[in-house]
Amino acid sequence: MVGRPAGHNRSMKTVVIAVLGGLLTLAGIAALVLPGPGFVLVAAGLAVLATRFSWAKKPLDYARDKAEQGIEEVGKSPLRAIGAGLAALALVAVGVLALAGVDLPFVNALSAVVLILSGLFLIGTIVFARKQEQTVEAIAQRPAGEPEGGGAYRAATPRTD
Fold it and tell me: 6, 51, 57, 61: which has the fewest Cβ within 10 Å?
């Protein structure tokens, strides 16, 4: 590229990343109170920003930790899993009703699709959390010296008799 400064391409990438990450983060913040996957969009925006800006890594790590804690809580508590499942079904139901022509306040076709996708995403997250918790429990209950799969063995705990 003749005639352009050497840092032009890099600074243009920084601007694009800042704008895209900022828009995703702002859309996510708005979706926290509006229908939509707010937390997912905030995390996606922070992930984009963290590729270029080191300050975005700290809130991204915080968001990741909170997401993992939430998944663990849903996985450990059948009651929370049921509550989250009911919320997911309600999201999908409202979205389907809106697409079917039922006049609902503050819901248009786009927000109806986002509600359905959010509900399906939540159902997937619940299934993942429950399966992960079952796997952790199965490994914890396996006696020492039993194969875990792939030829690996759990270490036996030393006896203290």
Answer: 6
